[in-house]
């Protein structure tokens, strides 16, 4: 069956990104599963997490010092009688203390404030003399005591389904006593490299052959983004072989193809997808590297046709495919984040495309600077080894002078 020719749809970078985000909004994650607390790192929460009690559960001292009545410190220095000491872990019920006017109790960070006391004076402003303490600095009522429930009330929602679990989320879940969590199932992502010149890792490549690196860089990107990669066999540049593997890949939650989307006679990916009645949402974006990137849907599954040049493959995954993966994993696409740094040396580029060039960012604080990793085009893997970020150049800026600010996307 001859496929109907598809009119090419080349979008600006922003438009292409918005198209992916638009589809991502309508995507629902698969099932859920329970995992241990630490295994939830990098996963997406599928349950609500609520406070199981008030936070803090008692009036918590924030400093080491003396629990006092603030009114007793109206005239300084003040001398108060020390009637006890309260360690962290002392139980509120067992506290023998009720701080009366003129009295104070030694108290440690994290200990419950005794009744009667309404502030804690830091130890730095006190001097113990026998059973009395001289205080040289006043406090306002409430100083250095965290009120019961001021951080969260019992039953209050702390995390919603869809939260991307990182170390802070894990700490929060631990603080309410959760040893396991319901998370969304990882999306299964089929990875299909194409090309007659591509050989598997175990094989010794002939002089005319190239090792399959894209399947592995993509698998690493998929895993880092929270998906479950499944590397398929390499597809030859031949319709029926390619078609069989694409059909296999379309059984996963998402299909990522590498190669075969340019204008060459044997770039068959779009043709074969068209035979499978695919819809194409775009067939190119005004970017470099990665201009021929394709996004579409076939058999109710989304796919990306990523250009085969290794840096193009990596960049287009980060810019487009990752957003869809987030959605399939149960969370809103994480926004692309650009920081800014000064260019170390003058930088000149051709205008007309948004560029994501391998760069090297160094320094810290006010001295962050970035330079081009010096690449020989989008197939230059060695340049990636010298880089740690992408320098992002707008389509209308032919030149950046040394010291000018430029956008950087970290990897
Ligand atoms: P294509 O997009 O198929 O025209 O391929 C563009 C360039 O990327 C060619 O030089 C390919 O050899 C190279 N390439 C394609 N697929 C891979 C792959 N899986 N691993 C490494 N290089 C690849
Ligand atoms: Mg090819």
Bound molecules: adenosine monophosphate, magnesium ion
The secondary-structure class comes to alpha/beta
Helix content: 10-25%
Q: Give the amount of beta strand, in percent.
A: 25-35%
Quaternary structure annotation: single chain
Radius of gyration (Å): 30 Å
Mean of residue pLDDT values: 95
Low-pLDDT windows of residues: none
Terminal Cα span = 42 Å
Biggest sheet, in brief? 6 strands, mixed
Shape verdict: elongated
User: How many strands in all?
Assistant: 30
Strand order of the largest sheet: 8-5-7-6-10-9
What does the model show?
18% of the residues lie in helices and 30% in strands. It is of the alpha/beta class. Strands 8-5-7-6-10-9 form a six-stranded mixed β-sheet, with no helix packed on it. The protein has a six-stranded mixed β-sheet with strand order 17-14-18-23-22-19, with helices on both faces. The protein has a five-stranded mixed beta barrel with strand order 24-27-26-28-30. Strand 22 and strand 23 form a beta hairpin. The longest helix has 19 residues. The two termini are 42 Å apart. The model has no long low-confidence stretch (mean pLDDT 95).
Topology:
Elements: E1 10-11, H1 13-25, E2 32-36, E3 49-50, E4 60-61, E5 65-68, E6 78-86, E7 103-107, E8 119-122, E9 126-129, E10 132-135, E11 145-146, E12 157-159, H2 167-175, E13 180-184, E14 188-193, E15 198-199, E16 210-211, H3 214-224, E17 228-231, H4 239-249, E18 254-258, H5 269-275, E19 279-282, E20 284-285, E21 287-288, E22 294-298, E23 301-306, H6 310-328, E24 339-343, E25 347-348, E26 354-362, E27 369-372, H7 381-385, E28 389-393, E29 399-400, E30 405-410
Parallel strand pairs: 1-20, 6-7, 14-17, 14-18, 15-16, 18-23, 21-26, 24-27
Antiparallel strand pairs: 2-13, 3-12, 4-11, 5-7, 5-8, 6-10, 9-10, 19-22, 22-23, 24-30, 25-29, 26-27, 26-28, 28-30
Helix pairs in contact: 1-6, 3-6
């Amino acid at each position: 069956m001859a496929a109907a020719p598809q009119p090419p749809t080349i979008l600006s970078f922003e438009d292409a990104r918005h198209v992916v985000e638009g589809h991502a909004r309508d995507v629902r994650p698969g099932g859920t599963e329970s995992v241990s607390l630490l295994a939830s790192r990098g996963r997406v929460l599928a349950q609500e997490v609520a406070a199981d009690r008030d936070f803090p559960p008692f009036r918590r001292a924030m400093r080491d010092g003396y629990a006092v009545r603030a009114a007793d410190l109206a005239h300084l220095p003040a001398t108060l009688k020390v009637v006890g000491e309260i360690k962290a872990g002392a139980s509120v019920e067992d506290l023998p203390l009720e701080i009366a006017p003129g009295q104070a109790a030694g108290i440690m960070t994290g200990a419950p404030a005794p009744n009667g006391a309404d502030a804690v004076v830091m130890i730095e402003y006190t001097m113990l003399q026998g059973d009395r303490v001289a205080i040289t600095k006043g406090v306002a009522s409430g100083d250095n005591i965290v009120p019961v429930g001021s951080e969260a009330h019992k039953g209050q929602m702390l995390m919603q389904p869809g939260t991307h679990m990182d170390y802070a989320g894990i700490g929060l879940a631990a603080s309410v006593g959760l040893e396991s969590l319901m998370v969304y199932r990882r999306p299964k992502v089929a990875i299909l490299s194409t090309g007659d010149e591509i050989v598997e890792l175990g094989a010794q490549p002939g002089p005319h052959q190239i090792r399959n690196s894209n399947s592995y860089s993509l698998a690493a990107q998929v895993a880092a983004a929270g998906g479950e990669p499944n590397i398929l066999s390499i597809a030859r540049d031949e319709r029926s072989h390619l078609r069989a593997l694409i059909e296999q890949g379309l059984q996963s939650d998402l299909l990522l193809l590498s190669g075969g989307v340019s204008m060459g006679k044997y770039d068959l990916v779009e043709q074969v997808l068209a035979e499978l009645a695919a819809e194409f949402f775009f067939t190119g974006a005004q970017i470099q590297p990665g201009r021929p990137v394709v996004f579409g849907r076939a058999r109710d599954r989304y796919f990306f046709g990523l250009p085969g040049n290794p840096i193009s493959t990596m960049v287009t995954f980060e810019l487009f495919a990752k957003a869809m993966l987030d959605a399939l994993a149960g969370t809103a696409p994480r926004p692309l984040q650009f920081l800014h740094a000064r260019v170390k040396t003058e930088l000149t580029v051709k205008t007309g495309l948004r560029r994501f060039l391998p760069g090297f960012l160094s320094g810290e604080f006010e001295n962050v600077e970035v330079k081009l990793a010096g690449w020989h085009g989008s197939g230059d893997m060695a340049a990636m080894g010298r880089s740690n970020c992408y320098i992002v150049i707008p389509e209308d800026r032919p030149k950046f002078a040394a010291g000018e600010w430029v956008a950087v996307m970290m990897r």
